[in-house]
Design brief:
Elements: H1 2-31, E1 35-37, H2 42-62, H3 69-93, E2 101-103, H4 121-135, H5 140-167
Antiparallel strand pairs: 1-2
Length: 173
Amino acid sequence: MIWYTALVLAVAGERLAELAVALRHTRWALARGGTESGRGHYPAMVALHTALLAGCLAETALADRPFLPVLGWSMVAVVLAAQGLRWWCIRTLGHRWNTRVIVVPGMALVTGGPYRLLRHPNYVAVAAEGVALPLVHGAWVTALLFTVLNAALMAVRVRCEEAALASAGGVPA
């Protein structure tokens, strides 16, 4: 379980790195007239993602979930792929990427990188990680709860993003 704790802590560290990048990008966007939308759902998103990490460790320990090698190692691969996709999104969007919904008016939509394949690839990474990270060590209740709650939250988030992009005049590049 020590190595699983290390994995979950590594993902937590990655999330902290994301927040540092997002803060820098927030300053950049606001300096260029960016406006934030969806402040109301942001605390719920932070709480859900924090609960995912805590739930992984709590369920594994409290319910004595075993490590099943075939499932566990395949889920480690999915976690790593999700991280790769997330950072591909961050790199592709550059200063426009954020954990918040902040849009600079008049900027063209990004249609390169993973955005040439999917409209919201970062959320694919989040969904994959939310299933895979708990299942690395058999925490299926955490995976299920996160998936259901994240789907509800993403329905709100995607509508918010789409409305913000439309109102800011974002058009495909």
